[in-house]
Amino acid sequence: MTSQQVTVSKTKSFMTVSLIELWERFGYYGMQALIVYFMIQRLGFDDSRANLVWGACAALIYVSPAIGGWIGDKILGTKRTMLIGSAILALGYALMTIPSENTWVLFLALGVIVVGNGMFKPNAGNLVRKIYEGDDSKIDSAFTIYYMAVNVGSTISMLLTPWIKDYVNEHYGNNFGWHAAFAVCCVGLLVGMANYFVMRKALANYGSEPDTKPVNKNKLVLVLLGSLVAVGVSALILEYQELARLFVYVAGIVVLAIFVHLIRSSEKHERAGLIAALVLIIQTVFFFIFYQQMSTSLALFALRNVDLNFVVFGTHILTWSPAQYQALNPIFIMLLSPILALIYTKAGKNNKDLSIAGKFALGFAVVAIGFFIYGFAGNFAVNGKTSSWVMIAGYGSYSLGELLVSGLGLAMIARYVPERMGGFMMGAYYVASGIAQYLGGVVANYASIPKGMTDPLQSLEIYTSLFNNLGIAAVVCTFIALVFLPLMRKLDKQHQGIQ
């Protein structure tokens, strides 16, 4: 097979994984756009409980891949586990279509989503890693484009599900719009699975060792039974916040201990890469605290303190619902991803590519600018309402920072971690992200608005104070990342020396 044929084959394989990931993210972000509003406006939660429940759920969603990656690597196979996860996710969204105000219905549905995500997420990312194994510049570029595919799905769903919710509620009443929107998330997963079956031959040469053998039915049954138990445990954690806090902190300690053990017990030539990965994962924790604000404090800021009308030179252009502003994030990701991918590829060919650690430092600086934009906007608010264009400017800066940090998180694992640890390390990365998202929910509660407070002038001061403090925190993270740059350069050189 010629080099051109190999490239074409890898591209088709990459597209197969990217498309099912696109539809999976369609479902997830369509749900995320509405979930905090759903708990507050439909189920009557106060801000604090809604933020913490979603923070705990996001933590579980990101922690669960630590187990899902291991199942894919050692038990069922990467491709099989990914497909089972997508089916479980579809079931979770289907459960959210049940028109009930019983909180246990919500918690059980979210528990199913947690399990499905855990099975799907690490294995999809690990397949991309296997396709571009050994080519660092292509890995950075591939994961950036992969990240763009994620945001194609999330953009469409974040614009669509809030509109469906509003339309159905307006025309049919009884709050059925919420559940109709969640039904669309379920349909997205079904479309993604159908697309995978059509294109699955492109992945015939990729996967983990169990993928090469017939499925072990006994192991499959055990995994499914374990999944049922995990759903119940997840529902309990979402209901009881003390349990959620304990679970998240214990998960962090366990993963850190395992990481340290792997570094100490690994081959000498592997340690530099593992230490570099650990440093970057810790930095990722801080980024995801900022990231979680999009679906908590920023979402509620849009609800209470943003003029929902887009106006250009005094002319009204369009009006968005508060939930649709979250789509600004993936829109900017799609616009910026190809540009960054091209820059990475060209810089890699000329040996001038900025290190991942350098990109992380730059990313934190840009995130800081985004939060300062939100905080400063209060000075130009009219009757407590800021302009929609403030949200566009803030999300633009914030999204560039996300691409430089989160967009390269998976590429960092692929570059620095030995293949035999790939599945676990993908999971460890998501555990770190999950811990951070729970902490992000805790941080968002510093801007929790008491029930009964309806004056935008009062809530504006609370939100802008939080955003300014987050901007300062992001500046501190930038300086910390810069301080670690010399160490990261040394580790990177040691790691590359064994290639």
UniProtKB/TrEMBL annotation:
Membrane topology of this protein: Multi-pass membrane protein
GO molecular function: dipeptide transmembrane transporter activity; peptide:proton symporter activity; tripeptide transmembrane transporter activity
Location(s), subcellular: Cell membrane
Keyword match Transport: yes
Main location: membrane
GO cellular component, one term: plasma membrane
Annotated transmembrane regions: 22-40, 52-72, 81-98, 104-120, 141-164, 176-199, 220-240, 246-263, 272-291, 327-344, 356-377, 397-417, 429-449, 469-488
Domain Major facilitator superfamily (MFS) profile: 13-489
UniProt KW Transmembrane helix keyword: yes
A Pfam match: PTR2
UniProt keyword list: Cell membrane, Membrane, Peptide transport, Protein transport, Transmembrane, Transmembrane helix, Transport
Gene Ontology biological process: tripeptide transmembrane transport
Origin superkingdom: Bacteria
NCBIfam families, per the entry: yjdL_sub1_fam (TIGR00924)
Protein name: MFS transporter
Organism: Vibrio algicola
